[in-house]
Write a sequence for this structure.
């Protein structure tokens, strides 16, 4: 049973119908095989681009869809229920557009943002490093000014879309002033000296490309720097607040898919002469899963509505990310339990959902970091 | 090149479809309603012809208020405007009444060169509307086509049936009905969705079209459904063990079922 949504407008309803149709007809049928074979679905992102779905939450004046986060996140959720790699990729793309959209100069936005938001380009977000994960201020990738350019050297890690992205939103060190020495650069994917390492062999999201990204003397024009030197970390953390909402929505979509599959199976699977959903032991498990999914959805939507009204939402975004991704882990694990032996096989999608759920607790700030953010907000 | 496309909102073939107990008409509440897929192809063909020859694409739907959703989808694909005939008196209309209403509604559009319809709807499956409509409008009918071209004032089409392929020509204006092979319909885009809400939709009643309510709906229908029952569930299949003559056994089974 698909999620029942209360949407703010007819256009939002029509948009969600379109997204469900694309998810059902174009994404869901291909997901299992592509994940099994590790095939990155570049075509799926082109389709999203043609459908105008790559810049939904940005203002229309700068080429976006002008949609509130409340609606955009539900689009992400529907996509995630069909294919997490695509939804997570869209979330990453949207986040990678954020620094330019929010902090870029008009001239920079006019020049680059149109194709990023309204075209078929795909973005990546290059913040983490092998030794700078939860502590991004310790990054060492360096952008050294040389005439009209920066020369970038260093290695970024865990970069979704590394090697396939058309542009990278890069955070690199421009001075040794700790967290104040980091700047944001918009790097073209074809820049000489930028290369992706072989893909990480991940537990889930195997259709997505995640790899280290190497910068070896890569020249990036200084006019591609977003905001002033040293503003990079603040921009990065601000982008993450919104990115976390994206991951929360992805987590709810994944959990909804696991719940739907579990209910479908529990109705049809018979033991002791009746459907297993008619045993209270299974029924209560399913009820808890449904309660988890719906409360996680309510949590991210509340955070989104705060964002849409211009209210502070850092704590709510961290809570939404924490609650939704822990819920996804629990619900997908329980889904495997409901399906029993079948659930443990690759003939059913729930074992994949369970593997995919794990990373949601790790990236865009581990769930320990989310608690740290929540705690810090409480202490203020 | 002004084109009218007939569209219909039907229960989603992905959901369970039922008839109401009261009057054996479609239970519209029981299933999700969508723009019929064959109509998406009809709209797609109209948009392609418009891209090549210019003009306006008008979508025409007869159905309850909720059919506006199907109309909006056609508009978000790119059609220019719409006519929605909605009237409680139309409930239970048969194909003859439906065609009469559609013919009158087409009459409200100026300078129509082509009417495009799907060959049959996925719910009623009568497949008769395009032909009846052509008769009522006094236009040539070019039905069941897999390919359409416009050459000046001539429409050229390939009609495909079980008997084979026929190459047809007719002078415009004409009524064309398309099959599933005609094209792959485009998805609407988000821009299309936003544009659709500003497009003109004329809502007309039976009286607006100058028809007598007694001519349409259940009262005006030439036939009535007295009884309806759901299809019995599928019975267990018959298993054939292949001991060397499996093929012959299957053939015997099919002959027994009068399938070959």
């Amino acid at each position: 049973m698909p999620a029942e949504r209360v949407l703010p407008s007819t256009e939002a309803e029509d948009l969600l119908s379109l997204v469900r149709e694309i998810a059902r007809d174009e994404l869901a049928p291909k997901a299992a095989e592509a994940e099994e074979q590790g095939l990155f679905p570049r075509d799926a992102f082109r389709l999203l681009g043609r459908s105008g779905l790559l810049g939904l939450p940005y203002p229309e004046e700068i080429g976006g869809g002008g949609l509130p986060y409340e609606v955009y996140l539900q689009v992400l959720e529907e996509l995630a229920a069909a294919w997490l790699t695509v939804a997570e990729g869209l979330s990453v793309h949207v986040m990678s557009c954020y620094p330019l959209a929010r902090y870029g100069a008009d001239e920079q936005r006019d020049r680059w943002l149109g194709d990023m938001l309204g075209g078929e380009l795909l973005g990546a977000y290059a913040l983490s490093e092998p030794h700078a994960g939860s502590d991004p201020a310790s990054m060492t990738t360096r952008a050294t000014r040389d005439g009209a350019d920066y020369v970038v050297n260093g290695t970024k890690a865990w970069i979704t879309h590394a090697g396939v992205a058309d542009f990278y939103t890069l955070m690199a060190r421009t001075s040794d002033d700790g967290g104040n020495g980091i700047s944001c650069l918009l790097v073209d994917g074809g820049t000489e000296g930028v290369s992706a390492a072989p893909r990480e062999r991940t537990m889930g999201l195997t259709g997505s490309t995640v790899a280290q990204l190497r910068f070896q003397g890569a020249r990036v024009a200084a006019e591609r720097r977003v905001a002033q030197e040293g503003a990079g970390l603040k921009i990065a953390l601000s982008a993450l607040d919104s990115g976390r909402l994206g991951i929360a929505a992805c987590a709810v979509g994944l959990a909804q898919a696991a719940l739907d599959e579990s209910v479908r199976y529990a109705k049809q699977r018979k033991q002791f002469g009746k459907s297993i959903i008619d045993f209270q032991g299974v029924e209560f498990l399913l009820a808890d899963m449904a309660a988890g999914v719906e409360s996680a959805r309510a949590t991210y939507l509340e955070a989104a509505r705060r964002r849409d009204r211009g209210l502070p939402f850092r704590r709510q975004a961290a809570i939404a990310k924490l609650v939704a991704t822990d819920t996804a882990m629990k619900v997908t694990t329980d889904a495997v339990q409901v399906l029993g032996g079948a659930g443990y096989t690759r003939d059913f999608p729930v074992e994949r959902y369970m593997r995919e759920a794990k990373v949601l607790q790790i990236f865009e700030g581990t769930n320990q970091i989310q608690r740290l953010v929540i705690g810090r907000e409480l202490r203020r | 090149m002004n084109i009218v496309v007939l569209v219909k909102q039907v229960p989603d073939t992905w959901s369970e479809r039922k008839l109401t107990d009261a009057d054996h008409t479609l239970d519209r509440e029981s299933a999700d309603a969508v723009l019929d897929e064959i109509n998406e192809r009809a709209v797609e063909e109209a948009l392609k012809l418009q891209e090549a020859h210019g003009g306006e694409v008008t979508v025409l739907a007869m159905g309850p208020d909720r059919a506006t959703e199907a109309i909006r989808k056609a508009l978000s694909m790119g059609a220019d405007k719409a006519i929605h005939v909605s009237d409680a008196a139309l409930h239970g209309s048969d194909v003859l009444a439906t065609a009469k209403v559609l013919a009158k509604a087409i009459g409200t559009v100026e300078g129509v060169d082509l009417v495009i319809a799907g060959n049959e709807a996925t719910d009623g499956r009568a497949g008769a509307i395009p032909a009846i409509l052509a008769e009522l409008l006094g236009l040539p009918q070019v039905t069941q086509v897999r390919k359409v071209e416009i050459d000046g004032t001539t429409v050229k089409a390939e009609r495909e049936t079980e008997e084979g392929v026929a190459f047809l020509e007719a002078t415009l204006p004409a009524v064309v009905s398309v099959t599933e092979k005609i094209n792959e319909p485009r998805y609407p885009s988000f821009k299309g969705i936003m544009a659709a809400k500003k497009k003109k939709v004329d809502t007309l009643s039976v009286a607006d079209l100058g028809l007598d309510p007694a001519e349409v709906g259940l009262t005006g229908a030439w036939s009535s459904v007295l009884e309806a029952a759901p299809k019995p569930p599928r019975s267990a299949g018959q298993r054939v063990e292949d001991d060397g003559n499996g093929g012959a056994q299957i053939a015997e089974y099919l002959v027994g079922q009068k399938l070959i």
